[in-house]
């Protein structure tokens, strides 16, 4: 009896692979400058937060870890990728990556010298760190966490004390409330209340404004955040990040204890003649994407220092 042919395995492309722009290979003597911070993030193990050693790569999601770190994590009963939570059955889901180890050895030929440099940097940061400002920042963080916990507790208590209402008759008010409850229950369990779903995330590419003249803020930045965040949130985030980067360039500067006074304007490219459009601060990222950005690619925004606010 003839057996049916075995179906061939099919491979599906992700939306990123479908829409990404292919990059041409560099075949000449062009030199590419990479910041030490971004390079260190690529060479860092997500478990021990140190440089990768005896690199192991997951076969499913291609995330890299130190061999000792990932095997210890699997033996402890965590059968998933520590980075993306994809299922890892056993050590068979890992493969060694000697090419990446060779790349690290090319960039850092002496591992002991790198470790000594890291210790010197940490010692220098401890010397320049202001204990009073650090204590103040920690206390402020703990206070904000306590306020957030109290607010969540109040919301939970108010929801538990709510009792379902009984509707009698066929009045317009009863019909309207019943129809509203029906619409809500279609989103989740039939409890008369919507389920708490976290808002979707959105990917952003931040580029400096073409006419921006501040040499300290010319870096292209990649951000992934909730779509409920507003343009004003992004402006404050940029001011804080750029202020911290300026402080790292000048280690002797005083550690930030108050929000920076600089304000950054956020722009988006449009098809109109004026080119870049200034976005209002109260506009959310979801509204910005729906109104100006009709693409599945990461949304491209531009930032520039607001000279009028300085």
UniProtKB/TrEMBL annotation:
Pfam families listed in its UniProt record: RAWUL (PF16207), zf-C3HC4_2 (PF13923)
GO biological process, alphabetically ordered: protein ubiquitination
Annotated region (Disordered), positions in chain: 145-219
GO molecular function: chromatin binding; ubiquitin protein ligase activity; zinc ion binding
Ranges of residues in domain RING-type: 45-85
Biased composition (Polar residues): 187-198
Pathway terms, separated by semicolons: Protein modification; protein ubiquitination
Record keywords: Metal-binding, Nucleus, Repressor, Transcription, Transcription regulation, Transferase, Ubl conjugation pathway, Zinc, Zinc-finger
EC number assigned by the record: 2.3.2.27
GO CC list: PcG protein complex; ubiquitin ligase complex
Enzyme class: transferase
Catalytic function, reaction form: S-ubiquitinyl-[E2 ubiquitin-conjugating enzyme]-L-cysteine + [acceptor protein]-L-lysine = [E2 ubiquitin-conjugating enzyme]-L-cysteine + N(6)-ubiquitinyl-[acceptor protein]-L-lysine
SUPFAM superfamilies reported in the protein's UniProt record: RING/U-box
InterPro entries: RAWUL, RING1/RING2, Znf_RING, Znf_RING/FYVE/PHD, Znf_RING_CS
Primary location: nucleus
Subcellular location: Nucleus
Protein name per its UniProtKB record: RING-type E3 ubiquitin transferase
